[in-house]
Amino acid sequence: MTITSPETPPATPVTADDARSTARREAWTVSPAGVWLVTQLELKQRVRSTKWKWALAATAALIAGVTFLMWGATQAFGGDNDPGAGNIIFGLVVFFVLFLGLVISPTLSATTINGDVRDGTMAPLQATGLSAADIVIGKLLASWAASLAFLAVAVPFMAFAYLNGSLPVLSMVVVVAVLAVELLLVCALGLGWSAVTARTPASAVLTYTTVAVLAVVLPIVFGLLSVTVQDEVTVTSSYQTYYDESSARAGAVPDEFGNYYVCEERTYTSTVARTDKLWWLLAVNPYVIVADSAPSPTTTERFGETGLLSGLKQAVREARLGPATYQDYCDEGMTPEELARQNDLNALPAVWPWGLAFQALLGLGAVALAVRRVSVPYGKLPTGSRVA
Predict the structure, then answer these.
(1) Alpha carbon distance, N-terminus to C-terminus of the chain
(2) Least confident of 237-251, 306-320, 329-343
(3) In the chain, which ranges are continuous DSSP H helix?
């Protein structure tokens, strides 16, 4: 009787594509210890730089100068102890801090990956047990932490303006939190462009271009399209018709100058911009997101008298609601039609979650792209790049 051993099935050859696919899956493995290690390395490298300290000091001095110049201007024009003036100063300081954040954050993240590739320090990280996700997320957190340092030096001046206004208690907290999230998303965009391009100037320019599209180009497009996207609507207008005392109509009343007038209504057809079809172009604007997220003070004042943040929020909601079909140029108070429109404005849901969600998708896409570009083995390297 002959006993034969079972034949061992032939081993399936591992192709290069299979190895690359396995490496891609492992690239997304996130280790908190690995992320923290990369973050520490990045932060220690920044802290050792003397220019970093001078940049923080210069930013604080610039924000302080702008804040107290605006405060002095309001005092000169009779804004002493005026909450409305304090709200305006707070809005200006917040917008200025956001502007600096949009300028500074790309410089902190747009050169982190291609800069390390250029200097030959990326390959040693990739040769360790760190995954591509560890490297990318660690660099992102380090860039964000550096951006938050600039935001931290601005908080005392924002608090000074806030305390001189009449904004709700949560306004300061919400504004700072949304500013921090905006800085994180801008850092993510810079990191993505840094992974795509081989040259650091190119990644910085592309990041600034992306930020400019969101903050400047889309509002310009909104304005241009408002001229072309128009409809004819029927508008009822209430206006004052003046008479002299000898020919004054029955029911005419004198104004403060002694001139007699009567309120009359006129209905006509007008061509107006359909901003309710275009408002989404403004929803992704960083300034609109910050302004719309801030709680507004409770007031019966007319539009524009409660500060820049509330004014911008109201303007975007006006655009979202569409054209008004009733205009009152006669009475100082709000007519029932205007009160109804104001209630419709207040009932509209907030705009900022939509804009922030869109920016978050851009940021997540940029991080995913960076992880794919950093993972080993490489697919196709950019022209002129080197591994070590």
Answers:
(1) 63
(2) 237-251
(3) 16-27, 32-47, 50-76, 83-109, 112-119, 122-126, 132-163, 169-196, 200-212, 218-228, 280-283, 286-293, 308-321, 336-347, 352-374
